[in-house]
């Protein structure tokens, strides 16, 4: 299999996993931090959900990393595949490059911030 | 095969509004555009994490209380759920499971996975928030 | 007794005369058991001998008579007039293919892709007839059976917007047939077919619109074949990454 196609096959596989992450894990995160907290709904009322999640050092940090990284990757990858369909085929290469850049920076950023917030997370419990 | 065509063939181009003419295609495009909300919410939350990480907790929480952001988040949740349901149905279509003589149908995959989603929703809240 | 009439609105295109296609209406007698092909044959026999279109078996097995009927890719021999709302039915050449004349489209692109995926059993060594037949279990047959139903009618290419936007896309039928041979236990040609289906404009362009499987008249479900081929490609790529010198 040619190298570029082989890379794309693996990127597609990751996108597929991201689809499951966005489907199963993203809804609860959006609800908790984006709707339940600001509107004072169950279960958080007015307590900050991010801090609550991060209090569970390992599992909470893992949950946030997997959900955010997986969803970001999936969302951008999928949006890229609609570029031809919305008439942006000529700019496809450039937009794909920007997309992959956002993915890389985004995933590094979320890892970095989570490490700052829970420094002990990489050491085994 | 003829090497030289004596008369021109007529080529029809697909216009940019191709997805408006067929309800299947329109639903398909909405399904694919859920990706926009999935990606943008992730970026917003990464920004929120950066505010938390730099000690600006009040700014982080104020961001999520911003009415425009709340409105976006409601849309994001709706679109993410639409992604989830269409994803479950699609997986049901392309990964049929053999159970003895019968094969699973997509709506069965949809139902089972919705139940799974509700379980995970509740489990995350129980384990990471209420405990 | 007044006869029931249907109006068939057909695309006409005469390359030597017309700059672009136009519609021409023909009134044909309407009978409940008529299919669109019957109407076209009536037109050609009684009203306008210049109307040009492809057809052959008239029973949905040869794949020759594909056209866009009221905007949907269909076999004209399998489309009953009574399926359509009202008494005016639009018949256009299969979309996404260049029009040669009237309803006849240029099939070269598909024929080229069909040959590219090598739709025959590839074996290193053919066994001689004296050695007996190749044996295949019911389970082995089931893995590729539905994909062998393809009649090369190209309705799926007309339905696929990805193909409509990018002619280089390998497309539903070609991939389904490639998968049919990849999954056939008698076939040993994975290494030959994988590079073709797994190149960038192979299966990876597919975004699971799914319209191909909706319009397929033989229940091939090319979307399923494409998805399974993607999974084969991803696992294959992962294997070659983790075991570069090893397993195939």
SSE map:
The complex is a heterotrimer of chains A (125), B (131) and C (248).
Chain A: H1 3-24, H2 26-39, H3 49-55, H4 57-81, H5 92-117
Chain B: H1 23-53, H2 57-65, H3 67-94, E1 98-99, E2 102-103, H4 106-130
Antiparallel strand pairs in B: 1-2
Helix pairs in contact in B: 1-2, 1-3, 3-4
Chain C: E1 5-12, E2 22-29, H1 36-47, E3 66-69, E4 72-75, E5 88-92, E6 99-101, E7 104-105, H2 108-116, H3 138-142, H4 155-159, H5 161-165, H6 172-182, H7 190-197, H8 211-215, H9 222-242
Parallel strand pairs in C: 1-5
Antiparallel strand pairs in C: 1-2, 3-4, 3-5, 6-7
Q: Any overview of this molecule?
A:
The complex is a heterotrimer of chains A (125), B (131) and C (248). Chain A is built from five helices and no strands. Chain A is mostly helical. Chain A has a domain at 3-23 and 57-122. Chain A is globular and about 50 Å long. The N and C termini of chain A lie far apart (42 Å). Chain B is mostly helical. Chain B has one domain: Fumarate reductase/succinate dehydrogenase, transmembrane subunit (3 helical TM bundles of succinate and fumarate reductases, Up-down Bundle). In chain B, strands 1-2 form a two-stranded antiparallel sheet. The mean pLDDT of chain B is 91. Chain C folds into two domains: 5-105, Ubiquitin-like (UB roll), CATH 3.10.20.30; 108-242, Alpha-helical ferredoxin (Fumarate Reductase Iron-sulfur Protein, Chain B, domain 2), CATH 1.10.1060. Helix content of chain C is 33%, strand content 14%. Chain C is built from nine helices and seven strands. In chain C, strand 6 and strand 7 (104-105) form a beta hairpin. The chains are: A mainly alpha (125), B mainly alpha (131), C alpha+beta (248). Chains A and B meet through helix 1, helix 2, helix 3, helix 4 and helix 5 of A and helix 1, helix 2, helix 3 and helix 4 of B.
């Amino acid at each position: 299999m040619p190298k570029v196609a082989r890379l794309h096959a693996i990127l597609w596989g990751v996108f597929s996993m991201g689809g499951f992450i966005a489907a199963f894990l993203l809804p609860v995160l959006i609800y908790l931090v984006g709707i339940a907290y600001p509107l004072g709904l169950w279960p958080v009322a007015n307590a900050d959900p991010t801090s609550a999640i991060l209090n569970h050092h390992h599992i909470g940090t893992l949950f946030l990393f997997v959900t955010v990284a997986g969803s970001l990757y999936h969302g951008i990858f999928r949006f890229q595949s609609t570029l031809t369909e919305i008439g942006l085929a000529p700019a496809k290469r450039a937009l794909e490059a920007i997309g992959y850049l956002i993915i890389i920076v985004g995933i590094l950023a979320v890892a970095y911030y989570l490490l700052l917030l829970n420094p002990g997370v990489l050491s085994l419990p | 095969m003829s090497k030289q065509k004596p008369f021109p063939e007529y080529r029809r181009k697909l216009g940019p509004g191709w997805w408006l003419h067929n309800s299947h295609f329109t639903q398909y495009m909405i399904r694919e555009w859920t990706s926009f909300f999935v990606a943008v919410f992730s970026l917003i939350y990464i920004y929120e994490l950066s505010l938390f990480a730099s000690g600006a907790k009040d700014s982080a929480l104020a961001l999520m209380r911003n009415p425009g952001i709340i409105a976006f988040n409601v849309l994001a949740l709706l679109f993410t759920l639409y992604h989830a349901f269409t994803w479950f149905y699609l997986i049901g279509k392309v990964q049929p499971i053999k159970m003895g003589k019968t094969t699973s149908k997509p709506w069965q995959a949809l139902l089972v996975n919705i139940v799974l989603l509700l379980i995970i929703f509740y489990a995350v809240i129980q384990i990471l928030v209420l405990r | 007794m007044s006869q029931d009439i249907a109006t068939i609105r057909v695309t006409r295109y005469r390359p030597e005369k017309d700059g672009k296609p136009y519609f021409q209406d023909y009134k044909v007698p309407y009978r409940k058991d008529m299919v669109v092909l019957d109407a076209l044959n009536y037109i050609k026999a009684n009203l306008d001998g210049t109307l040009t279109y492809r057809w052959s078996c008239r029973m949905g097995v040869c794949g020759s008579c594909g056209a866009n009927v009221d905007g949907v890719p269909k076999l004209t021999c399998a489309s009953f007039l009574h399926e359509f709302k009202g008494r005016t039915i639009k018949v256009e050449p299969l979309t996404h293919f260049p029009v040669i004349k009237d309803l006849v489209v240029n099939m070269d692109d598909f024929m080229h892709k069909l040959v590219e995926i090598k739709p025959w059993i590839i074996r290193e060594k053919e066994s001689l007839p004296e050695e007996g037949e190749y044996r295949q279990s019911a389970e082995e047959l089931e893995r590729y059976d539905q994909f062998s139903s393809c009649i090369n009618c190209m309705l799926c290419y007309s339905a696929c917007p990805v193909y409509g936007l990018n002619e280089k896309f390998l497309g539903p039928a070609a991939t389904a047939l490639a998968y049919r041979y990849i999954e056939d236990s008698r076939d040993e040609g994975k290494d030959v077919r994988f590079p073709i289906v797994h190149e960038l404009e192979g299966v990876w362009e597919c975004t699971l619109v799914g319209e191909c499987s909706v319009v397929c008249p033989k229940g091939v479900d090319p979307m399923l074949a494409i998805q399974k081929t993607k999974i084969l490609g991803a696992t294959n790529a992962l294997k070659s990454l983790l075991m570069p010198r090893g397993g195939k």
